Task: structure prediction
Amino acid sequence: MNDFSGIPDHGLGWLEASGDHADIVLSTRVRLARNLQGHAFGPRARINDREAVLRRFKECTTRAESLKGGTLMELPGMPVRTRRILLERRLVTRDLLGDEEAGPARGTAVHLSGLQPVSVMVNEEDHLRVQSLVSGLRIEEAWRMVDRLDEELGRELPFAYHNTFGFLTSCPTNVGSGLRASVFMHLPGLVLTKEIGKVLQSLGQIGLTFRGLYGEGSEVVGNFFQVSNQTTLGKTEEDLVDHLDKMVRQVIQHELHARHVLLRDARGVTEDKIWRAYGLLRYARALSFEELMNLLSGVRLGLSLKLLPGLRVYTLNKMMIFTQPAHLEEAAGRDLPPAESDAHRAAYVRRILATEGDVSPDDVRSGEGEPSDGS
Amino acid sequence: MADMVCDNCGSTDAVVHLTQIVNNQMSTHNLCERCAAEKGLESAPEPVNFPLTDFLAQMGPDTPEEADQSGTQCSFCGLTFQDFRETGRLGCPHCYETFSPHLQRLLRRIHGGTQHVGKVYLPPDPSASDMERRLDGLRRKLHRAVESEDFERAAELRDEIRSLEPA
Result:
């Protein structure tokens, strides 16, 4: 079954904008890397290794409580667009999709749970990548969910585990706990006040790292950053999770302070930037994805600062996902060349803003006159 | 995107785009890397794509016993140490034993330690010593949960420990 109908939230529950600081933290992801004994790791696995791993995982799907009622989607043979939609929903990695020409390798699959925001990638770089993706800042909760699923899987499958090195992984940067927790943050205040470099550099000194939208190697677009733990060995899972949570809360405080400074020292210019972004989104006839992300960043800031009443964080989250190329093509029912894609994107944004984000003039603060005291 | 002209020297490789807000007036400047550096500006750091293979190359000469290993091959998957140096990926669980001395040094550099202290895995058909290790791990967690006054978690752990302890 290669559609999303079996998944109650279509794998999009993480957009709902619940959880702490949902305007600043879009989502939290925690994943565990696990491998099975007796088989070579992903990059060196032969076809029979991959098939055996998938077969053994399939057997678990009927027994592990957290997997029941879910959907297993096998990537080879799946329509290309469906695969790209999975990537755009952040349910699979680029690695799992394989290279564009050859497509996904035999045995690659993703299991999406019917009950909880947990999923398992099969035959990625590691045999299993068990992950939880939730809305807002909920690191501890996401960790508990993957921990439970990992326990259930571990009772059925012989994981590769070493008394010194812990859970063994293809890449030595994941060995030990195999845990990577990452928080997807919107930090326009720090970018506009030029504090971001300092903040990101200090993250590096305390064992954290940052990336762009789609994980490793991807660009930072629209002031969105993924902050995650760098090391996986020598600390307990609880410590890794707790440390990231504490540090992310500090980054949020810095971001809030930066926003306060913007409003205090440059209210007029900030309001102007935000309203220009809103205006472009509301009326533009063509938008590239990058331009859209940058405009959404401005509007998101306006929403957080309560300068754009009537808009919801959920509406903005949804726009980030449904305006990606494969989602636009799915809605149009055909492939779209880039120029058409830009037009479809702008049309989608106008429609959503007209129905869900029409800021009524009565609500609009004029922005004229003296900057307020920021209260 | 079209090349941007540097506001300072006119070259067409402006890569630093500076937005300044001074006295409530916003201005934007485009500068090439050299002019930006002269003005003491740096672009925001790029995301770090952890270059493990570069890191491996920079680790310096092997100790004599590691040099002995460089031709070693994993008996299970056939990976050589040279393969690992090139790809940064190990081939299978056995590689961790095969290349253990070298990995110890590498893991210390990457993670700051070599001993796993997290979850203790209990395989599907655990031996008595597996059980004992698992119980030790759970007791350690229980201790921490009590210390941090997370009593709900502590109660869960206590139940789990009871269920595993020999009657």
The longest helix of chain A spans residues 237-283.
